[in-house]
Amino acid sequence: MTGSRPSVWIQDLTWEEVDSYLQHDRIAIVPVGSTEQHGPAGVLGVDTYVAITLAEDVAERTGVLVAPPIWYGDSSHHGGFPGTITIRPDTLTLLIRDVARSLARHGFDRIILLNGHKGSNLPALNSAVRVLHDEELPQVLFAVADPLHLARSSAPTIKETNEHHAGELELSHVHYRYPGKIRTDRLTDASVDFDEVFGGFVGNDLFGPAPDGVEIIWSGDEQRAFTPTGSFSSSLGLSEEKGKRYHDHIVTRLAELVEWLRGYHGPIGKPSDG
Amino acid sequence: MTGSRPSVWIQDLTWEEVDSYLQHDRIAIVPVGSTEQHGPAGVLGVDTYVAITLAEDVAERTGVLVAPPIWYGDSSHHGGFPGTITIRPDTLTLLIRDVARSLARHGFDRIILLNGHKGSNLPALNSAVRVLHDEELPQVLFAVADPLHLARSSAPTIKETNEHHAGELELSHVHYRYPGKIRTDRLTDASVDFDEVFGGFVGNDLFGPAPDGVEIIWSGDEQRAFTPTGSFSSSLGLSEEKGKRYHDHIVTRLAELVEWLRGYHGPIGKPSDG
Amino acid sequence: MTGSRPSVWIQDLTWEEVDSYLQHDRIAIVPVGSTEQHGPAGVLGVDTYVAITLAEDVAERTGVLVAPPIWYGDSSHHGGFPGTITIRPDTLTLLIRDVARSLARHGFDRIILLNGHKGSNLPALNSAVRVLHDEELPQVLFAVADPLHLARSSAPTIKETNEHHAGELELSHVHYRYPGKIRTDRLTDASVDFDEVFGGFVGNDLFGPAPDGVEIIWSGDEQRAFTPTGSFSSSLGLSEEKGKRYHDHIVTRLAELVEWLRGYHGPIGKPSDG
Amino acid sequence: MTGSRPSVWIQDLTWEEVDSYLQHDRIAIVPVGSTEQHGPAGVLGVDTYVAITLAEDVAERTGVLVAPPIWYGDSSHHGGFPGTITIRPDTLTLLIRDVARSLARHGFDRIILLNGHKGSNLPALNSAVRVLHDEELPQVLFAVADPLHLARSSAPTIKETNEHHAGELELSHVHYRYPGKIRTDRLTDASVDFDEVFGGFVGNDLFGPAPDGVEIIWSGDEQRAFTPTGSFSSSLGLSEEKGKRYHDHIVTRLAELVEWLRGYHGPIGKPSDG
Amino acid sequence: MTGSRPSVWIQDLTWEEVDSYLQHDRIAIVPVGSTEQHGPAGVLGVDTYVAITLAEDVAERTGVLVAPPIWYGDSSHHGGFPGTITIRPDTLTLLIRDVARSLARHGFDRIILLNGHKGSNLPALNSAVRVLHDEELPQVLFAVADPLHLARSSAPTIKETNEHHAGELELSHVHYRYPGKIRTDRLTDASVDFDEVFGGFVGNDLFGPAPDGVEIIWSGDEQRAFTPTGSFSSSLGLSEEKGKRYHDHIVTRLAELVEWLRGYHGPIGKPSDG
Amino acid sequence: MTGSRPSVWIQDLTWEEVDSYLQHDRIAIVPVGSTEQHGPAGVLGVDTYVAITLAEDVAERTGVLVAPPIWYGDSSHHGGFPGTITIRPDTLTLLIRDVARSLARHGFDRIILLNGHKGSNLPALNSAVRVLHDEELPQVLFAVADPLHLARSSAPTIKETNEHHAGELELSHVHYRYPGKIRTDRLTDASVDFDEVFGGFVGNDLFGPAPDGVEIIWSGDEQRAFTPTGSFSSSLGLSEEKGKRYHDHIVTRLAELVEWLRGYHGPIGKPSDG
């Protein structure tokens, strides 16, 4: 469906090729990840690889374009582990606004921020585009997408254990799409006793039932104290098959989002011509 | 349980009275709300009243102190309705950091940000304290609390219909605690067809099952287009009884949080002495 | 004169009620205070209570609306005393600009910033609106009001001693309007020898003659060194009667300001139709 | 009294000469002015020349050093007149903080910000150093000086008419110190009717009695409407003699300030050793 | 020389693998590029690919690590062409500072910012690290590297024509390392007459003699006016061989830099132990 | 050629005189310098004096106007020497933007930023105006000028030794124009061995051949370690004659720039009417 495009990636097209695209479509996906520890088995780029592969595959399927990936996110809570590179949420917010302004200048008017860093980047992404849309770019429809919400229905049917940072599903996903990026000889069992650490106010399964809870903020140093390996939940159940089911479900849902955006004759509140 | 304190509110104490408190306790609650439209029936201050009454009651029950309320939040999406006063998330973030720095200077080392503006302030609050805790105030344990998460288990058992902005539960809550603040002759039925407006990617019940979704950003003007009354869900089922059950559940849970914080010998990851 | 308004406070009105107001009037008052030590007798909220009561009464008298109060101001110089919560002037400036932008969006075009924190917030308030009016909101007439200037003529006739922070007039004012907020058993005599501390360059009476002086900047810790009680001048002369005279004078003058603003057909420099 | 210093100006010394100074003294003056219209007779640099000449003379008399002048201030209200160059108060604040940090790094610990731009720069200067002193540079004693306050007692005895922007005293001052900078053939009579423009809420004499007033914010365009010449008050009474008396009074008072600072064994609150 | 490292890229290592590296080496390279038009033949990612390939190869050769690439730079002057995504220099500066802070936290103390976006990012990179090194990270030695300066001696011997944006050398370089990224059927001859456009004040050869000149700032729209194809100089001479010679020269020089940094026992000014 | 202007300096003109100028010309020069150590012989203001004298002379010759000088620049690398006053590049950037906005408001549409602080201010100046021109002031043509580039052809023919900070040419220049500002009894021989300090990656002659190099960032403290006198290269060859030749060359080239700007009918890319 990508037609004659040499690539789904803007960085791999010339300006004339992007110009051609803009004659018939105006959707862009911006993949946002992080560079942060993912336990003994996961490479530091796991979150960005998640964003990249999802963006790439939905773009292949639907024919939209993808902007170059943002490899850095808000990872201060993982900063106690070597290799984690965190940027302040304030910085990420400014970065996203600049990228969106440039895309809008060229006529892109539906922008999907696709976050691979489950949850943690969402405050900055959300803050970035709420103000931008309200004050500067009313003509651009922004959607903020995250596997955490896109896989709500399917994740519980795929995974076999509690899923948290560097868990079974996340690592299976990257393992499926990027064989070799997961050190399969370093998978770990769960290592955080959430009730002991967080008193029952924080759930241990991102896709499971949550307690009547609050958000507890912890620093990188504190994290290293409660999980010296960096692992939050078991990754022993890793499999290519789980990764594939999880990946396909999200890509399919993102493709539906793209189709809906294509048919949308906004602004929001005036969705259709009919 | 408040002992001899003349008030739970810091603004109603002298500095010597706060000094006395700090001899035996170091917890503070900061109520954060908004000034934004809540349909034909709800006053603009609904969210702040929610934060105020929850803070006040849990403080009464547990003996902790409450900082003066923040009446302004991130409400750009309601800005199309007269009276809504929104501040940029970047501004709210700076404000929260300054307030927390002052509290920390005096020795408060467990700070609960209590958000009454369900959801919408969370990105700014979260961004504010993550950086602050990691870079400047490692000694302060921050918890970000919101009825949305504290009432997860009870809300579905109390409400009779979908609950969204200015819905049955929210208005019942304020009606119960502040009789007269809700115009009971102006209650409305649901007025947003979420599937038509958001294509099935956004749920219509903050306490109910959610779709495999994304976050769609809308402006104040767009909101006014899709809900000319400002109402998102039915408030016809408003009752003092519902408000009471909802309120009591959250206060009880917050009181448990306070007790847990009191016993916590952090930093996080080193929860207990035993 | 408030007609059928259920309240002078925007937070206690629905958006439709604010909309009605805007059909006939476009003035808003924004009360700005502080949370800072006011000696052994005054509660920490004294400045905000001053702003609130003045705003409320002038609004009752003239029929204008009041935005929710800002409880935090620039109080770094009081930061050595427990309970003082200070925000940076830069933060206060951003906050004021956001609030003003929202009011302007709805059509409010005469905004009175009513400062209860005598003097100390004025730099931030002034900086906030000068740029805003010149660059963004030329259509809005801003007035920055402070008891320090509004009571110039009357204060000297009411007070019996030098008036400085937490002095006789300030505490009488709050005592008159909010009985119980002043600990009348903890009134203090003057405790700062201004000439010794400030070398004759700073006056000890905010409403009295001032020396050929300069502004000396002191920190919270320094303040605690030169006034261990937090008191600057005697509050022994506190009386309800003084508070009433002071309050009534300022409210009357503010009411005159409101009337003048109503008749003003700006922009400034083109005041009248005649 | 300047000893062997080749100059009072830091920019006219080598680093070794500044180093010598710091062996025995630690006071610096930072002159801050503006570039803004001063009516048909005054050059745009009037305010900066005021700051420069006062700084220079007090430094000559007392032997302290002066930092290079800041020629730009917060002059948005004069921006309607060609040649006015205004910087945002936020920018001035950052600039002052950086300059102060550098001075403090070298050991200067008493810094006088000497404002020649009567009043208008004070909010930014004040905001700059309050935070800086409280959070970063507790060891530096900051004084913010302005002719408006230093000449309180003498100005009324010198001038013959109301003194406001570009008035008799200000222009006499520059005329006395910089012959030729005032176009004496372009002196003007008063041209603003303050009561008509500001309704009696703003005084027309910076050194005279003021009404029970407020601060009204006006833009550069509005100013040009109410005073097409840029003049606020009469400069017809200009004389070298008046300039001299005004200048000498302020320099003398500043010299007293320098002496007091030299003897101060702060921090504030611990003024003396005795 | 990379020993047992699975990759030179931090994002492709686990935190434990980075930890191992830090036991014996503390150098990191941060590749910074841009996403901007490079004429009809060059893809938008040319600059980032330059930074990536140089970083990767010098890391392979010397055994140091590379942080994930930054795909966005300061490209406002190319913003008139579809696909160009520019971030403000202020944003890039904040981003670089955050990345450097994270690296420094883990013990990296020699950081090479490797810019592939010839020239245009240098102001932001330079501003970012000058302040950072002076105020926050004195222990980190920063080097800012750019092909423009690293290839000074060799570029003139390789290229056959004037080299400017999207010129022969730049495209040969990417063509050599990433076959297929250059549309060899869309190479163009020079299209900007520098003397006509810039009056002789701007040179047309980044590696050639320059006039007695100044920097002229142009916008994206202006650029499109003076070079409708986006090409500045001829790329007709593109060849793999030129790309190889250029690449090898720079990689060799960067490797020498790495070796020098390894032996440096700073801080700067104390280069050696001997 | 200055016609009847009383001065080339805006600060020495009244607003009416600037208004007259704007009837026939729209060029302004903004001199930017620094206050930083220039070795035992040079005063701290050397860079600003360079900017001032060049601006003044080219303005005299061509009849354009000059804005008041900016005495502070980005000098953190000299901050280890008493008297150096550095401002952050971020601050300088904001300052330049504000000054440019004011000039543009009055109709100046060709602005030359004339930097006397060779090199070090360029990142901030460049960052300031690139964004400004692209986003806010498309109608203003900005040129950033520096002796480093304007004297490319002549400097090597004048100087007799390597020229770096506080070198022969720089000091000759100020000595020629401001006799007495250079302590001719304190001239020094070269004191930095660039190869030892910078490993051959940094050139020791700003006007000579440069190595295949990188930019190494050093702090003020580090600088003091590698050049305890503050001198980088020999100033023993100082002469008035060299200063004159250098000065005249640059002024002539700047005058050519002014003439070119006068004839330019931009925007850039549309240079001429013909």
TrEMBL record, chains A, B, C, D, E, F:
Record-linked SUPFAM superfamilies: Creatininase
Family: Belongs to the creatininase superfamily.
Taxonomic lineage from the root: Bacteria, Bacillati, Actinomycetota, Actinomycetes, Pseudonocardiales
Gene3D superfamilies: Creatininase (3.40.50.10310)
Keywords tagged on the record: Hydrolase, Metal-binding, Zinc
Signal peptide: none
Transmembrane segments: none
Cofactor needs: Zn(2+)
Pfam families: Creatininase (PF02633)
PANTHER family, per database record: 2-AMINO-5-FORMYLAMINO-6-RIBOSYLAMINOPYRIMIDIN-4(3H)-ONE 5'-MONOPHOSPHATE DEFORMYLASE, 3-DEHYDRO-SCYLLO-INOSOSE HYDROLASE
Protein name: Creatininase family protein
InterPro entries the record matches: Creatininase-like_sf, Creatininase/forma_Hydrolase
Annotated source species: Pseudonocardia yunnanensis
